[in-house]
Amino acid sequence: MKTKIVIIGEKVHEVGYRFFLADSANAYGISNFRAYNTTVNSLQAVVAVIEGEEEDVKNYLGFVKENFPEHASVNEVTVKEYTGYIPTIDSFLLTFVAGQLNKGVPAILRIDEKQDKMLEKQDETIAVIKEESRMTRDTLAEHLKNDIAEIRAEIAEIKEKIAG
Q1: First vs last C-alpha separation in the chain
Q2: Which of 87, 119, 147 is the last residue of a domain?
Q3: Same domain, 81 and 157
Q4: Is 26 exposed, middle or buried (0-12, 13-18, 19+ CB in 10 A)?
Q5: From CA 158, how far away is CA 16, in angstroms rounded?
Q6: What's the total number of domains in the chain?
Q7: How high is the pLDDT of residue 163?
Q8: 3-state DSSP assignment of residue 47
Q9: Where in the sequence is the domain holding 125, given as residue range(s)?
Q10: pLDDT-based confidence at 126, cuts 50/70/90?
Q11: How confident is the model at residue 20, as a pLDDT?
């Protein structure tokens, strides 16, 4: 039995709806499955086409009409007969996972760019710290020389007074 499900609402994209439908379809024994996001009358929509044993499809449809992903806002769920090609659920899931992973590539590249900039800034900061540390060390050494010279001069004065 082949069926097309159209889920329309204010928020049905970016809430995990396609995975929710695929995972549920797998649990209900649906052998063939495909889902995609679209719009219908300016509203978000998820379309799923399924194929399986009649009893499995009926049970699945009952589930889909009553259950939604946590953050979804659904206005209506319609069901129609379908006659087109439907890939296996395994094929859909492989394609879906690859697509989701592909979405992450730009984010990973942005992280890599930011990391490079952070490392450059870190190198600049380390150079400044080393320079200030060297300057502090040199300044401290100069103060110690002056203090020692003053102490020696005072000791010499005291020796003169005592000897004198």
Answers
A1: 122
A2: 87
A3: no
A4: middle
A5: 88
A6: 2
A7: 83
A8: strand
A9: 107-164
A10: confident
A11: 96
| Ramachandran assignment for 131, one of left (phi > 0), alpha (psi -120 to 50 degrees), beta (any other) | alpha
| Amino acid symbol at 71 | H
Interatomic CA distance for residues 82 and 66, integer angstroms: 21
Q: From edge to edge, which strands make up the β-sheet containing 43-51? A: 32-40, 43-51, 2-11, 73-81
pLDDT at residue 127, rounded to an integer = 85
What are the Cα distances from residue 128, in Å, to 119, 137, 140, 156?
14, 14, 18, 42
The CATH code of the domain that includes 80 is 3.30.70.100
pLDDT tens profile 29-86? 999 999 999 999 999 999 999 999 999 999 999 999 999 999 999 999 999 999 999 9
- Kindly report the pTM of this predicted structure: 0.66
CA distance 116 to 52: 51
pLDDT at 17 over 90: yes
From 54, 87, 120, the end of a domain falls on 87
Structure tokens at 105: 């590539």
Q: What is the pLDDT of residue 114?
A: 84
Both tokens of 37, joined, read: 């996001």
